[in-house]
UniProtKB/TrEMBL annotation:
Segments forming a coiled coil: none
Protein keywords: Membrane, Transmembrane, Transmembrane helix
Cross-referenced InterPro entries: DUF1468
Keyword DNA damage included in the entry's annotation: no
Cleaved signal peptide residues: none
Domain DUF1468 as annotated: residue spans: 10-144
Protein name: DUF1468 domain-containing protein
Keyword ATP-binding recorded: no
Length: 150
């Protein structure tokens, strides 16, 4: 029953989704707000459960080689991206959402081999600013400002 990789991963994701939903339903409710603080986490939890169930019922596309491990030449890339994510989490409160997200997007995409630095810089600036404005103005959710004065 749990022989394929998709089924093993989906069972783990279902367990994580159930745990995440339990914690999401425990978030405090606030009066007089148009969108409560638990709406997005609950929606994401149900989405994770639905996608995990779909994954359970999909067939593995087996290739000739049964080696499902990460190739050794790609391991430094995976560890580098994990390092970027850990640094992002560590510096988020200290430096603020906009600054850390700009640095993360720019340097992570450079690390992954994207060569057009001007386009990379424009996207790395535009995306965090738009997300910040969306959360701050429309959703009225405060993101960490860090060292920036706004």
């Amino acid at each position: 029953m749990f022989g394929t990789t998709n089924r093993k991963i989906s069972i783990c994701l279902i367990a994580v989704g159930i745990f995440y939903l339990i914690l999401s339903f425990r978030l405090p409710a606030y009066a007089y707000v148009p969108i409560d603080s638990d709406m997005i986490p609950i929606g994401l939890g149900f989405l994770l459960l639905i996608l995990a169930v779909f994954l359970f019922f999909t067939n593995d596309q087996k290739t000739n080689d049964n080696d499902e491990r990460i190739p050794k030449k790609e391991l430094p890339i995976v560890l580098g991206v994990v390092g970027f994510i850990v640094c992002y989490i560590f510096f988020l409160e200290i430096l603020g959402f906009i600054l850390v997200t700009v640095l993360f997007l720019f340097f992570c995409s450079m690390f992954l081999g994207y060569k057009k630095h001007v386009v990379n810089g424009i996207v790395s600036l535009a995306v965090p600013i738009l997300i910040y404005l969306l959360f701050d103005s429309f959703l009225q959710v405060q993101l960490p400002t860090g060292i920036l004065p706004f």
